[in-house]
Amino acid sequence: MATFSQAEAFALAHALIAEVTARADARVLVIKGDTLVHHGLRHPRTPSDVDVLVHPDDLPRFEKALAAAGWTPRISAFVTLPSTHHSVTYLHGSWPCDIDVHAYFPGFLHDPTTVFESLWRRRVSMRRAAATVSIPDFSSSALMLALHCLRSTPETPRHVEELLILTARSASWSTEVADDIARLAVETGCASALAAVLPALGVAVVPDGADALALREWNRRVAGRAPRARIWLSYLLRGDPRLLPRRVGEVFWPSDDAVASTFYLDSRPEHSKLDQVRLDRLARALASVPSMFGLRRRSVLAEARRRRLRESHMRRARQYGRAAPAWCDAPRVDTAS
Amino acid sequence: MQRWQVSERVAHIVVSPKRVLVFNRNRVDDSPLVLQGSAATIWQSLLSEDGRSEGDLVDGLVANYDVTREAAAGDVRGVLAELEAFDLVSRAPEPPS
């Protein structure tokens, strides 16, 4: 049988999601990916997964329907326990793309149910592969794009570029659009989270009453201070204490299946390869311990990498004819003579 | 002559005139089917609202490929049988005379 490409699978997966959504009678929004292209917020490209945001009440039904269609979670052991993951990736042996099922969207700091219902009220439709899916409206999508990019900036140059494109395009937004985005940012509790970005988009930052602890966690994440060791520790400490030994095993020496699926290894990798991946994970986690306590490792290599990233961001900012916004981590230029 | 049409609830994407992917929403655990060459041409002909007869489909293949009418008829029958087995096409009702 002829195989199909990731781009083809990505397009057709929208039809699959439409069907699974109908069978589960769930409220589901397809987010990111093509929805941003649909609203003219991003250039087209082929993502490796389709992202969906599901109403918290409907999540069990949706996941059950997805499982009935032959899709399995990537790290099944992790999803059975309370964890810090905001999404679970589902895979299918015959489909060369993933489906990322989001329980909530990071950066919207109000209660996930409140946030979803705000986004759901504004939903619009998108046609793909002769099927119709619900997607967030323009304002919701603009906020999601900003949050998504900010969360990984400055580590991912592509997201820096997407944020610059968003900033450039915002110049053509009407006052009504900017006001609508500001209203939604308050309603969903992301105005504070985007305080560094919204002014660059011409959107006023209005107090949103976001939970102070959640905002601090968000800012820490955006500043790149969520080291792997802390994520692991957080996973170990949450959930049923009786299952702690199992969680320790999952975290420090995960099963062959978990390693193979998480790191996209062959179906039957050699033991030496699996062990190498496990040891690399442990080494990276150990290396992140100092930063967990606020001690930053400053190596020559790390500094060089930071400089390269900064220069790259500045080049992109110039390319889009904009001054580098605050989130660009631009070097200060001393203009004093 | 028997007319054929695309079944309800079948999603598809036309990648190019010679490559189409189809997915039956009634059978979500089945993989999408890749149709190439003459099969893709036949599928696109079937997208017509009132379906197509086997003769129409044969005409379409003869117009697009360097094949004899007999070879095209065999191809059409084979593709339709396969698509019907996957519930991707169905026999269209006779149009009112």
The main pleated sheet of chain B reads as: 3 strands, antiparallel
Class based on secondary structure composition and strand pairing of chain B: alpha+beta
Q: What is the topology, as strand order, of the major beta sheet of chain A?
A: 1-2-5-4-3
Instruction: Considering residues with a beta carbon less than 8 A from a beta carbon on another chain, report the largest interface and each chain's count.
Output: A-B, 22 and 16 residues
Oligomer: heterodimer
Detail the poorly predicted runs of chain B. Answer: none
Keywords:
heterodimer, A: two-stranded antiparallel sheet, 15 helices, B: alpha+beta, three-stranded antiparallel sheet, 38% helix, globular
Question: What is the secondary structure topology, with strand pairs?
Answer:
The complex is a heterodimer of chains A (337) and B (97).
Chain A: H1 6-24, E1 28-31, H2 33-38, E2 49-54, H3 59-68, E3 72-73, H4 76-79, E4 87-92, E5 95-102, H5 112-121, E6 124-128, E7 131-135, H6 138-152, H7 157-169, H8 175-188, H9 212-222, H10 228-237, H11 244-252, H12 256-262, H13 271-287, H14 289-292, H15 300-319
Parallel strand pairs in A: 2-5
Antiparallel strand pairs in A: 1-2, 3-4, 4-5, 6-7
Helix pairs in contact in A: 1-3, 6-7, 6-8, 7-15, 10-11
Chain B: E1 3-6, E2 10-16, E3 19-24, E4 33-36, H1 38-46, E5 52-53, H2 54-64, H3 69-85, E6 89-92
Helix pairs in contact in B: 1-2, 2-3
Characterization of this structure:
- Chain A is built from 15 helices and 7 strands.
- Chain A has helices at 6-24, 33-38, 59-68, 76-79, 112-121, 138-152, 157-169, 175-188, 212-222, 228-237, 244-252, 256-262, 271-287, 289-292, 300-319; strands spanning 28-31, 49-54, 72-73, 87-92, 95-102, 124-128, 131-135.
- In chain A, strand 6 and strand 7 (131-135) form a beta hairpin.
- The longest helix of chain A is centred in the C-terminal third of the chain and has 20 residues, at 300-319.
- The N and C termini of chain A lie far apart (71 Å).
- Chain B is an alpha+beta fold.
- Chain B has 3 helices and 6 strands, in the order ββββαβααβ.
- Chain B has helices at residues 38-46, 54-64, 69-85; strands at residues 3-6, 10-16, 19-24, 33-36, 52-53, 89-92.
- In chain B, strand 3 (19-24) and strand 4 (33-36) form a beta hairpin.
- In chain B, helix 1 crosses helix 2 (54-64).
- Chain A binds chain B through residues 1-4, 8-9, 11-12, 15-16, 18-20, 23, 68-70, 94-95, 129-131, and chain B through 9-13, 15, 21, 23, 25, 28-29, 31-34, 36.
